[in-house]
Amino acid sequence: MSLDIYHPLGRTGLRVSRLALGTMTFGPEYGWGCDEATSRAMFDRYIDAGGNFIDTADVYTGGTSERWLGQFIREAKLRDRVVLATKYTHNVANKARDPNAAGNGRKNLIRALEASLTRLGTDYIDLYYLHTWDQLTPVEEVVGTLDNLVRQGKLRHYALSDVPAWYAARAKTLAECRGLEAPCALQLEYSLVERGIEYEFSAMGQELNMGIVAWSPLASGLLSGKYKADTPAAEQNAGRLRTTAQVATPALSKFKPRNWEVVAALEAVAQELGRPMAQVAINWVANRPAVSSVLLGATQLAQLEQTLPALDFELPPELEAKLDLAGQLPPIFPYAFIDTMAPRMHGGAKIEEKPPRYGQRLAQRHGGWR
Ligand SMILES: NC(=O)c1ccc[n+]([C@@H]2O[C@H](COP(=O)([O-])OP(=O)(O)OC[C@H]3O[C@@H](n4cnc5c(N)ncnc54)[C@H](OP(=O)(O)O)[C@@H]3O)[C@@H](O)[C@H]2O)c1
Q: How many domains does the chain have?
């Protein structure tokens, strides 16, 4: 299985599986997660398949995700082998309305890291993410503090999740210029129906050597094919999207006409390939520019069994092109403008239209590590 082929994350020596295990579903607190026995079975299965990259956050399921994961790793004696990633920013336990007990600032960062280390039962984190941009804390404060924590041995690497591209570019460049440890990766939502990162992040990831770790590759289950376009939300098959449909804002709702068109295109391609829709959707994300790894989410072992082989086949170019087209974003300024100006910039010479895909480049260079 392709999980035991490892690639470096961004410009680091840290080798990770191209499919990571997401643990946001570990715990019943959100009303759409799973129990401890199922979480443990999924952890064991992922490790058995050769996977080494596991993702959690301090905020997931109110801390249960970190606690269970720490326990599974400890009992399996796998702390050295696993690349353990967690995140800080949000703080659900912040009942005292303390503004410094959440957000990206140094005070919360250090508090949150210590709390995660305790819940996980470890003395270091392999990959520590800023979870979400707080629109407030100066980037210098974040980068300086994280650099310091790497030097102290509490973190091996750090990365950014859910930030604007300009913020990530500034963090990376500033850190490099100042001789500080720089962020090595970006964790961002990316799927056939959520392609907003293609405007800025894909090129930035390649240019700045930051690996993209894609979250919600199935758009929270929409791309598994179990939800139907002509069915009201309350009557859909059971799953996270049915549970959350009542509270999802229109902006975040996955049940919208444009998405149903993408689901139909995916269904047609999956049928032609004779593969489950979920596998095809994940395979497509994993092979997009700059993507280092894709996060698998599941609430049942059978779901994980279905998605683990998602990279064990190649999408034929003509089918991949159909998927590319289905959810394609409209051209926007400045890129549309720059494209029209391109012939005037190269003296009429032919230039390569697109850089080779990140995955292909790595494969050519290294052939992967087993
Ligand atoms: N950085 C961030 O802000 C952020 C945000 C979100 C997630 N994440 C990370 O990304 C990970 C994955 O995110 P996600 O859970 O949203 O991923 P996803 O792949 O979009 O959705 C996973 C969900 O889809 C359903 N599903 C999965 N496989 C299926 C199958 N074969 N058949 C039918 N249904 C299936 C399950 O939900 P049901 O059983 O309920 O239908 C499962 O929990 C998380 O665990 C977390 O580590 C990060």
A: 1
